[in-house]
Write a structure and sequence with these properties.
Layout lengths: L1 E6 L2 H10 L3 E4 L12 H10 L4 E4 L11 H16 L4 E4 L10 H11 L3 E4 L9 H11 L3 E4 L10 H10 L4 E5 L7 H6 L4 E4 L32 H11 L1
Parallel strand pairs: 1-2, 1-8, 2-3, 3-4, 4-5, 5-6, 6-7, 7-8
Helix pairs in contact: 3-4
């Protein structure tokens, strides 16, 4: 069983390696499902780890339908990762109807070579998972990370098993709520890869009387926040 740890920092990556993980998926901001880590973090992890490093290419939180500018950023970040010798790229793109964006996903796969490619949990939004899985396999995807289109991979076991049954060379990687008390279930149904964060919290700072810095206003999945031209222009006009 391949064990991939989703590491959100250099410290997490080092701990995952020490714990015996087979590889890491490096990202930032686990609270929003992960986004692309900084170039500095990618370089430091590559320097310090001996196990394979796969990097998440996701320019922002929210849905998986990207503008031309966002996609250009994704390609640039992919090129940086390949140039710095990462072992794998983790990404994926959907159309506005949540079906697979074949053209852009194919472009990301080609840009990631010779690194391996994992299609991430955007897969859990597609309407035809078996058909999409076969499409991804034909495109040359090495792994599909999925919770079986349920809130946790344990709840999605049936679909995970079905996908594993039709797989020829693309591995099904169970991710989403994988823990000590359920990890053996994925072995029992014949899966060969699991994905988990294995996090705990620490480094507590007393901030009970401080104003919050998190903004629930921006935590949307169906819309993306973008700087508004008129709003900024009006404010500029008032203060200049």
């Amino acid at each position: 069983m391949l064990v991939e740890v989703c590491a959100n920092s250099l410290e997490s990556a080092l701990v995952a390696q020490e714990a015996g993980a087979d590889r890491i998926e490096l990202c930032s901001e686990l609270g929003v499902g992960g986004i692309t880590p900084s170039h500095g973090l990618i370089q430091m992890v590559r320097e310090r780890l001996d196990i394979p490093v796969h990097v998440l290419i996701r320019p922002r939180s929210g849905h998986f339908t990207y503008s031309d500018l966002e996609f250009e950023v994704m390609l640039k970040n992919t090129a940086f990762c390949v140039e710095n010798g990462v072992d794998g790229i983790v990404s994926g793109v959907l159309l506005a109807d949540c079906n697979l964006d074949v053209e852009r996903t194919k472009a990301l796969i080609e840009a990631s070579r010779p690194s391996k490619f994992t299609f991430h949990r955007a897969f859990d939004w597609v309407s035809n998972p078996k058909e999409t899985f076969q499409q991804l396999e034909s495109l040359g995807v090495n792994y599909v990370l999925t919770s079986g289109q349920q809130t946790t991979a344990e709840k999605g076991l049936d679909l995970l098993q079905e996908l594993n049954g039709i797989s020829k060379k693309c591995a099904v990687m169970a991710g989403g709520g994988v823990r000590l008390d359920n990890c053996e279930k994925f072995v029992e149904v014949g899966l060969n890869a699991i994905h988990l964060s294995g996090t705990s919290f620490g480094n507590e700072v007393p901030i009970s009387e401080k104003i919050p810095m998190n903004s629930a206003t921006h935590l949307r999945e169906d819309e993306i926040a973008v700087t508004n031209l008129d709003k900024v222009r009006q404010i500029v006009g008032h203060v200049k």
